[in-house]
Structures are given as structure tokens and as C-alpha cells.
């Protein structure tokens, strides 16, 4: 067995969020691999480090949106609310970092600037913003899916005399809105959470809305002792049920078709799911709402009615109620008193669909020639989702292939996990995996475990690279496109489709077959000795 050149470390991980923390524990502590983690932030947390805007909160119940890998961890941690707010999730991730002694192998305040495959040495050479060069046999991307904020598209923004804040890069010291004239652009999940809180503080809040959203009640509450104990006593079953559910939550009330029941029964199901909160209306009502326009119409109309009930001014309600696209084809936001916010005297809704934002002036925002004077502008305009974080790392595969070129017409991956010409590079919750339509911590654990098993398998066979075959990747890309075309997603302008970024290829970035089907496929690939991959060593190779 001819040994390849020896890299500095076995594994290089980017990101110290949910992925990086688990990956470090898994590779370093459970597999004995030398591992280094890099993060641009000055502490752990990833998404939950950056998104400190008022109202930031998780949309999946915290007992489910949390790590399952350590029984002790899940038994000892106690969530104070059903859906934890950002500070508590950050506290949890800090607890994990301390508990597993992770910080000592994380280099903070350091960005990855290039990631280049060396085909001779058979490892990755990574350069960082602190001038370091590190080589590693395996590269794990935990760079996240919603971590590169969209570049503001508003001319004049640099000349604004007041303060400008980005929800995804919020100041640690917080922002004092008291008595100020605040404008917020964007009504996605971030905007909706922030609007509800900022309105309580600001002198006046002007909301610039381009596309209304179908937001539904989150149903948050302080945790109930008895329920928490019940969850802890049944964690194994709950985690299994979550992993076997389309969205990675242990909901089990979904019915077949919204069109197969009477109007009254349908209404009863919608009411129950609406009251129960979370993503139940979306994912635990009727199976066909993401696939059948007529079925979707029933739930879309239901939400419009509920919005109208909550907003006093009819014209404002008309603007807030979406009608141009089906429910859940944009990521559905969850809310608490969002619609009631528009009944406040200090809140104004401005429609920027019909009268778009022309420019930002030194004094405020100008829409259709009308100037709105402001002291503060909050941008809740979203992210270059899924591919943005990967393209920001300067990845270069075999023979100088740049990731930008590989992704010119949209992402190309096998299982959303690996890419042809990029050996030993694992995309944790990458594009073309269920990731953003799965419960993220569980999705992350699944992918880190896949990478860990793949590496263990290489080592057991005295091999040192794994890479998808071009054919397997092509088939996966086509398969993902086919799955998407069977849903209502492709016709809506959403970040799922890359449609929120001017010039980004319009392809579905997510695997839409659901987590259980996806997980079965990954398990089958492993069972068939890494079907669709080629595994090589310095002297040998094996194609599966
Ligand atoms: P989203 O969901 O992408 O929302 C961004 C919002 O900003 C959305 O309402 C956009 O309107 C609006 N936007 C973006 N660009 C503009 C311009 N140029 N003019 C006016 N309005 C604009 O991002 P979020 O941060 O809220 O949520 C991201 C994910 O984080 C979320 O899905 C969860 O998974 C957590 P548009 O709809 O494009 O008309």
C-alpha cells in the first residue's frame, strides 16, 4: 500500500454552527481524526450567531430542532419555550461547544478564501483570511444555506444619512428604535418576525412589501413541565418518527387529499392545524397541497380569509393577503400577532410591487416618486440561498475546475452530498438534498454521519478518496428537477428556485421527494458499497 502525501490534518470543516460543532465532535472525538474548524464569526452559533434581529425564532419545535446524537445532551437540556428564540438557541450551541470541549479546535474570525484540490497529493489545500494555508484529506462544508445575505439592490443606499441594518448581520449590542422613524424592506420569515417586534418600539414603522406572504400562527408558549418530561421519556421514538416524516417532525395527522373530504371536514382540519400552530397547516393537513393546484387553492383561500379577519382596514388586508402564487411555494413564515401589527397607529404598509423602490435618498426611501422619510432602514431582503455560501469559498476541483463554472446552470451534486471532480468534499445539507425542507439539525446529523461512514469505509479498505461518478450526478440532477416539476414550486419566484437573486439560474435548489425517501436512497447507496461513487487509493481504485 503506497501512502499518499500526508496533509496537515485529516479533516477541515468550515462553519461553527450546528454542522461544524457536531462534525468536530464526530470526527475528532468519535473517530480520532485530526480536525480543524474555521468560522468567520468570533464565536460559535452559525445562523444563530448572525441573525440576532428582534423576534428571531425557530419555526420547528425546539425539542425536535436540536441535536439527537447525545442522549445525555438531550436529557439535560431544558428549553424554556416551545419555539426557542435566537438567544436561547445560541446559548444551547454554546453549551454544546463547552460540553464537548470544541472551541480549542475552532479558529474564529477567519474566512475560507480558497479550497483547491491537489490531484497529485490527493488532498485539499485551503487558504484563509488570516493568511494561513492548511491541507486536509477531507473538506466538510458546514457553511450553511442561508448565510450569504443578498446584496442590497437599492441605488443610493450608501448616501442614506440614517442607520442601515441587515437582519442577517445584526449588531450584537442591539438597536434602539425608541421614537424613531423606521423602514423595513422585506416580508419573508425574517421581516415578519422583526416587524412584529420593531413596531412595539418604533415611533413609526413603514413596511415596504413587494410580495405578501402566507404567514400562519406559530403557537408558541412556555414549555410545559409534564410535556417536556414526556418528550424526554420518549425521545428515541420521537426522533425516529421525525426522521421518517417528510419535513423531519413527528407530526402524524396528515390526510390524503384536501379534495377527498367535505367542505366542513376540510375546514375542521384547517382550523385544528391553524390552532395547533407550527408547520402543521403546511405539512400535517393534506398531502396534496404542494402538488395539486386545486387542493392548494382550498388552503390558500382559508389563509386569506383568516388574514382578513385579523386586519381592520380592508385595503391593507387586501395588500397583505397573497393571491398570485400558491401557499407554501415560498417558504411559509410563522408568526405571533403579525397581522394585528397593521392595526396599530404607528405602522404603515407600502406596496412596492406596483410602485417599486426607485432609490434610497439621504432622508429615506423613495417609491414611485413618493419619499418616505426615515431615521433607520432595516433590510430583511433575504439570502443567496444554498449555492451562495459554497460559491463564496473559492472552490476549485480537479484540473482547475472552478465551482462557479460547474454551477453555471445551477447546482450539480450527487445526493446533495458530493460533487464529481471534487473528491472528498462533503456538502452538509447541500443543494439537491432535502435540507431546508427537513429539520435542519437532524438533516445535518444524517449528512455528517454519511461523511463519517464514507471516510471510515475508505480507511477500512486502505483507500483515500471518494467521488461521485459523472453519470450518477447527472441522474441525480435530473431526478431533482423531475421531482420539482411534479410540485407547484417551479412557477413561484422563491429562493427555493433561485428566483430571488437577479441573474441566478432558475432551478429548484431542493430535493422535493421528502426526507424519508431521501434517507432510504442514501442508505441503499451505502448498502450497495457506495453505488454511484468511485473510491480510490494511491495504488488502486474501485468503481461502484
Ligand atoms: P426571504 O424569505 O427571501 O424574504 C426576503 C423578502 O425581501 C421578501 O419579502 C422579498 O420580496 C423582499 N425583497 C427582496 N429584494 C427586494 C427588493 N429589491 N425590493 C423589495 N423587496 C425585496 O428572506 P428571509 O430572510 O425573510 O427568510 C429566509 C429564510 O430564513 C426563511 O425562508 C427561513 O428558512 C429562515 P419578494 O418575495 O422577493 O417579492
Compact description:
InterPro entries: FAD-binding_Monooxygenases, FAD/NAD-bd_sf, Flavin_mOase-like. The protein contains 16 helices and 21 strands.
Characterise this structure.
By secondary structure, the protein is α/β, with parallel strands linked by helices. The longest helix has 21 residues, at about 440-460. The strands form five sheets. Strands 1, 2, 3, 4, 5, 6, 17 and 18 form an eight-stranded mixed sheet that branches. Strands 7-16-8-9-12 form a five-stranded parallel sheet, covered by helices on one side. It contains 16 helices and 21 strands. The site of ligand NA7 has 21 residues, from helix 5. Ligand NA7 binds near residues 146, 381, 382, 495 and 500. Keywords: Endonuclease, FAD, Flavoprotein, Hydrolase, Monooxygenase, NADP, Nuclease, Oxidoreductase. Its cofactor is FAD. It comes from Rhodococcus artemisiae. Its EC number is 1.14.13.-.
Amino acid at each position: 500500500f503506497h501512502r499518499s502525501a500526508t496533509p496537515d490534518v485529516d479533516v477541515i470543516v468550515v462553519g461553527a454552527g450546528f454542522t461544524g460543532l457536531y462534525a468536530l465532535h464526530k470526527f475528532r472525538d468519535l473517530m480520532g481524526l485530526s480536525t480543524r474548524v474555521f468560522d468567520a464569526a468570533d464565536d460559535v452559533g452559525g445562523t444563530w450567531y448572525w441573525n440576532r434581529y428582534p423576534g428571531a425564532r425557530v419555526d420547528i419545535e425546539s425539542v425536535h430542532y436540536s441535536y439527537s446524537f447525545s442522549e445525555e445532551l438531550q436529557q439535560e437540556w431544558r428549553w424554556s419555550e416551545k419555539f426557542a428564540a435566537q438567544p436561547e438557541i445560541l446559548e444551547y450551541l454554546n453549551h454544546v461547544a463547552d460540553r464537548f470541549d470544541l472551541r480549542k479546535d475552532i479558529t474564529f474570525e477567519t474566512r475560507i478564501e480558497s479550497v483547491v484540490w491537489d490531484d497529485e497529493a490527493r488532498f485539499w489545500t485551503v487558504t484563509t483570511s488570516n493568511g494561513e494555508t492548511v491541507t486536509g484529506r477531507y473538506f466538510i462544508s458546514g457553511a450553511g444555506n442561508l448565510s450569504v445575505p443578498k446584496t442590497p439592490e437599492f441605488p443610493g443606499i450608501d448616501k442614506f444619512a440614517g442607520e442601515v441594518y441587515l437582519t442577517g448581520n445584526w449588531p450584537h449590542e442591539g438597536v434602539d428604535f425608541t421614537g424613531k422613524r423606521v423602514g423595513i424592506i422585506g416580508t419573508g420569515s425574517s421581516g415578519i418576525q422583526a416587524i412584529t417586534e420593531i413596531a412595539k418600539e418604533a415611533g413609526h414603522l413603514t413596511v415596504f412589501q413587494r410580495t405578501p406572504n402566507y404567514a400562519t400562527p406559530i403557537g408558541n408558549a412556555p414549555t410545559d413541565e409534564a410535556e417536556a418530561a414526556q418528550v424526554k421519556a420518549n425521545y428515541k421514538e420521537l426522533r425516529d418518527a421525525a426522521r421518517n416524516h417528510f419535513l423531519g417532525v413527528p407530526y402524524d395527522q396528515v390526510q390524503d387529499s384536501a379534495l377527498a373530504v367535505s367542505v366542513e371536514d376540510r375546514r375542521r382540519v384547517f382550523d385544528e392545524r391553524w390552532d395547533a400552530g407550527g408547520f402543521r397547516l403546511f405539512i400535517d393537513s393534506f398531502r396534496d397541497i404542494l402538488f395539486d393546484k386545486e387542493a392548494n387553492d382550498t388552503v390558500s383561500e382559508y389563509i386569506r380569509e383568516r388574514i382578513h379577519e385579523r386586519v381592520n382596514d380592508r385595503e391593507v388586508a387586501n395588500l397583505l393577503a397573497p393571491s398570485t402564487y400558491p401557499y407554501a411555494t415560498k417558504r411559509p413564515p410563522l408568526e405571533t400577532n403579525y397581522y394585528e401589527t397593521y392595526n396599530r397607529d404607528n405602522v404603515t404598509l407600502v406596496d412596492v410591487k406596483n410602485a417599486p423602490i426607485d432609490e434610497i435618498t439621504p432622508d429615506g426611501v423613495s417609491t414611485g416618486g413618493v419619499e418616505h422619510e426615515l431615521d433607520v432602514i432595516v433590510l430583511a431582503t433575504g439570502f443567496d440561498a444554498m449555492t451562495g455560501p459554497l460559491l463564496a469559498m473559492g472552490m476549485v476541483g480537479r484540473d482547475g475546475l472552478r465551482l462557479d463554472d460547474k454551477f453555471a446552470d445551477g447546482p450539480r451534486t450527487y445526493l446533495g452530498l458530493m460533487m464529481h471532480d471534487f473528491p472528498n468534499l462533503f456538502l452538509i445539507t447541500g443543494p439537491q438534498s432535502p435540507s431546508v425542507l427537513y429539520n435542519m439539525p437532524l438533516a445535518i446529523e444524517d449528512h455528517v454521519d454519511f461523511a463519517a461512514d464514507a471516510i471510515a469505509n475508505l480507511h477500512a479498505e486502505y483507500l483515500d478518496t471518494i467521488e461521485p461518478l459523472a453519470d450518477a450526478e447527472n441522474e441525480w440532477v435530473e431526478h431533482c428537477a423531475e421531482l420539482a416539476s411534479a410540485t407547484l414550486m417551479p412557477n413561484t419566484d422563491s429562493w427555493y428556485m433561485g428566483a430571488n437573486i437577479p441573474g441566478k439560474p432558475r432551478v429548484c435548489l431542493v430535493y422535493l421527494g421528502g426526507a424519508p425517501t431521501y434517507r432510504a436512497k442514501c442508505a441503499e447507496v451505502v448498502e450497495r458499497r457506495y453505488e454511484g461513487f468511485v473510491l480510490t487509493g494511491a495504488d488502486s481504485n474501485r468503481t461502484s
